[in-house]
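Worked problem 6 (solution included).
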Amino acid sequence: MAEPEEQERLVLPVLPLKNTVVFPHVLVPLGVGRPRSLRLLEDLAPGDRTLAVAAQYDEQVEEATWDEVRHVGTIVRIQHLL
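Solution. The predicted structure is:
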């Protein structure tokens, strides 16, 4: 039996979302205002604005850590920044 091909691991920045779930292939406006989230968006490469988004467990948390964000999310590409 042939060995399964090793899958490439994709490492992306994660943008925690409050009260928002993003589904694949759906255009969704995201309101981003937290300083850390704004820096994340500013640091994205101009030619490849790809990141992961995931919902926070508690919307009251301002600076969510990895343990405060759901570990299932969606890979998104930022189309426009206003």
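Discussion: The mean pLDDT is 88.
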